[in-house]
Amino acid sequence: NAGVTQTPKFRVLKTGQSMTLLCAQDMNHEYMYWYRQDPGMGLRLIHYSVGEGTTAKGEVPDGYNVSRLKKQNFLLGLESAAPSQTSVYFCAVMGMGSPLHFGNGTRLTVT
Amino acid sequence: KNQVEQSPQSLIILEGKNCTLQCNYTVSPFSNLRWYKQDTGRGPVSLTIMTFSENTKSNGRYTATLDADTKQSSLHITASQLSDSASYICVVRGGSQGNLIFGKGTKLSVKP
Measuring CA to CA, which residue among A3, A8, A21, A12 is closest to residue A79? Predict the structure, then answer.
């Protein structure tokens, strides 16, 4: 039972490159979230999904896109990476009455 | 504006000592409050949840309190261990849409 798995764990991009972060869960939870965590800022919500095929914007959605084609997967895409997107990205899942369960993060550096 | 403020920002204590972390919030309406522990390089892990009617809840050496009238919560750690070194994040669920509002965390360092 892996819970919430994020891939990759680390990535270095050059400005303008694109990439996709994958979040996979085996908890069968409906709600999935993408957060970014920066020093002194706490966790900020990028996008979230309340079920398969649905997505919505969070607090800081600009420069990111998401897709939830399957219930167990939530993808976060960066179409044209910028240095301001250097951060640690966390995926989290939640079911009714349960706490957020987080993955262990993807550390992204954009040079 | 719905906000969660944590204090102190960082704290250093000696192993075996007790400490208390604070969380003040302005979220309304209030649904629940959770404390998470985040070890370096890992995702946060839930420690405890407090609902409106609960004043105190314990999880081993961790005791959380909630005063819904003053909108304050505290996390008390007893007989600290080196493994308690982590960031502790307060998260309040509430507001008109039931959003999760995160504090910026308190970084605790336990020294031998």
Answer: A21
Cβ within 8 Å, pair A99-B103: no
pLDDT tens-digit map of A2-16: 799 999 999 999 999
Per CB-CB distance under 8 Å, the chain A contacts of B102 are 42-44
Question: In this structure, what token pair is assigned to residue A92?
Answer: 């989290």
Q: In what order do the strands lie in the sheet with A73-78?
A: A4-7, A19-25, A73-78, A65-67
Nearest-CB residue to A100 (from B41, B46, B104)? B46
Q: Band of the pLDDT at B99, cuts 50, 70, 90?
A: confident
Cβ-based contacts of A44 with chain B (< 8 Å)? 102
A105/chain B closest Cα distance in angstroms: 6
* DSSP letter for each residue of A5-42: EEE-SEEEE-TT--EEEEEEESS--SEEEEEEEETTTE
Q: Which residues in chain A have their CB less than 8 angstroms from residue B44's CB? A: 43, 90, 100, 102
Q: What pLDDT sits at residue A78?
A: 97
Tell me how many helices (H) and strands (E) chain A has: 0, 11
Q: Are A110 and A86 in contact (CB under 8 A)?
A: yes
The CA distance from B43 to A104, in Å, is 4
- pLDDT tens string, chain A, 111 residues long: the values are 579 999 999 999 999 999 999 999 999 999 999 999 998 888 999 999 999 999 999 999 999 999 999 999 999 999 999 999 999 999 999 998 788 999 999 999 999
